[in-house]
Amino acid sequence: MTGNETRILVVEDEPTIARAVADRLAAEGFAVEVAGDGPAAVRRAREFAPHLIVLDVMLPGFDGLEVCRRVQAERPVPVLMLTARDDETDVLVGLGVGADDYVTKPFSMRELVARVRAVLRRVERPAPETDGALVRMGALEVDRRARRVVMDGREVHLTPTEFDLLACLLRNRGAVLTRAVLLEQVWDWADASGTRVVDSHVKALRRKLGQQLIRTVHGVGYSLEVAS
């Protein structure tokens, strides 16, 4: 996606911050709309059908965590959360309800734009063709082309990043991947500073697909294990 075909919804109740973020993203070539509270965010997400949402945690009406839950229940969409620097709990909960990444306040516009583009690249990149489109392992079925997951005959809703993490583990099944490797391959992060992002998404996958799906190798990383 390039230029104005890429739609971004900015959800922020501080008018000065909302305007600054919207203006910078518009200057980068994105089509941008703004919502200032929880109910308006859910409504605009439904009407505007954004490719990505920049979402503040603290909002009137209901908070950004509830916005993320409601939006993801209707349609998977990448979410970049904005949170205060010391709100670690909000970060972990936000990642658990379907956010893909986060930026802590105060942030630079350059950092925000870089994170936005990184999330969009992850969503847009094609799946490697070496694995084939459809992969079955035991009760797990993953259609990489349709980005569809079925477990025990039941379709499971995954966020874009949850799907990419599962696909990465599936490509490397049987191998133990460190958090640093997962951050590089799934999140396009060049450093290992976001280990809690990986851990939170692994927890989300376990909650949706079963606790035995992903094995933790303490002190190393994670491995996908599905009984045949």
> Helical residue percent?
40-55%
Approximate shape: globular
Low-confidence stretches: none
Estimate the mean pLDDT confidence: 85
Kindly report the spatial arrangement of strands forming the biggest sheet. Answer: 2-1-3-4-5
Number of helices: 8
Distance between the termini: 38 Å
What structural class do helix, strand and pairing data support?
alpha/beta
What kind of assembly state do the chains in view correspond to? Answer: single chain
Largest sheet, in brief, is: 5 strands, parallel
Number of strand elements: 12
- Rg over alpha carbons: 17 Å
Strand portion, in percent? 15-25%
Order of helices and strands: EHEHEHEHEHEEEEHEHHEE
Short structural description:
The protein has helices at about 15-25, 40-50, 65-75, 90-95, 110-125, 160-170, 180-185, 195-210, and strands at about 5-10, 30-35, 50-55, 80-85, 100-105, 135, 140-145, 150, 155, 175-180, 215, 220-225. With about 230 residues, it is of the alpha/beta class.
Detailed description of the structure:
The structure is a single chain. The longest helix has 16 residues, at 109-124. This protein has 228 residues and is an alpha/beta fold. The mean pLDDT is 85. The protein is built from eight helices and twelve strands. Helix 2 (38-48) runs parallel beside helix 3 (64-74) and helix 4 (88-96) runs parallel beside helix 8 (195-209). It has helices at residues 15-27, 38-48, 64-74, 88-96, 109-124, 160-171, 179-187, 195-209, and strands at 7-11, 31-35, 52-56, 79-84, 101-105, 134-137, 140-143, 148-151, 154-156, 177-178, 214-217, 221-224.
